[in-house]
Amino acid sequence: MGTLGTIDAVLGITAFAAVGVMVLLHEIDVHTRRLRLHMDGLSKPGFLPPPPTVTGQRRQYGLSRFLTWLIVGRVKVEGQENLAKLPEGCSCQITPNHSHYADVFVMPVVLKGRGVRYMADAAVMGGAGGLLGLLIAPMGAFAANRQAGIEVLNSGQGMVIFPEGWTYLDGVMGIFRRGAVNMCRVSAAATQKQSYLVPAYIKYGRYPGAWIKKLPIRLQYAVMLLAFPYYRRGVSVVIGEPISSAALGGDDKIDTEFLRSEVLKLKR
pLDDT tens-digit profile of 123-132? Predict the structure, then answer.
């Protein structure tokens, strides 16, 4: 092969490689855009990802067990038999208090990897640029939204929802929002089947006290994250008896106060 032939061969290979790189970059760009749209969708209230897969449930349970052991320590559960009182295939909401960021790890351990959904704050689903939502959506999480929650219940699924809506790190239970009882009633009316609320109370071995509420919320979380060895004193969870939609009186405010009182009764 002469010099010109060699040059032509090199140019041909280079051009072929360049085209290949351009095609690869285009495919990467297309998939990146699709992934970005999906991640943005996960943090959008009203968007409901598919139910958790078996693999997602296993990953959730394994990850939650490890993080609960690391951050909290020993888990003690009372009232597991009350979960067995729920009718087969019924829709239900497990409604614990919310006094620690670790609640989201503790509850999957308590429920032993059951394929329930988790209503999470949109900011959580959009955390770390959307990567957090990408991680936890296959495990059953979705951005908090009333209509999405009703859709979950109408399909006969279970769901964990924290009625306080936010974390009260001082350990004092806050005021409940009305979403849980409203969704319970609306779903029961739409499906003509009973829907259930399951009160639960989570109590940790040590809380920081009222002083932490004086700090900005981000700083509160930072303190708890950095000082977790000091607060690692175990957790106890008490599960109460299911409350059927038929037991609700029809007034969201009164029924929410009733639900809060049922959760508070479980405090030990």
Answer: 888 877 777 8
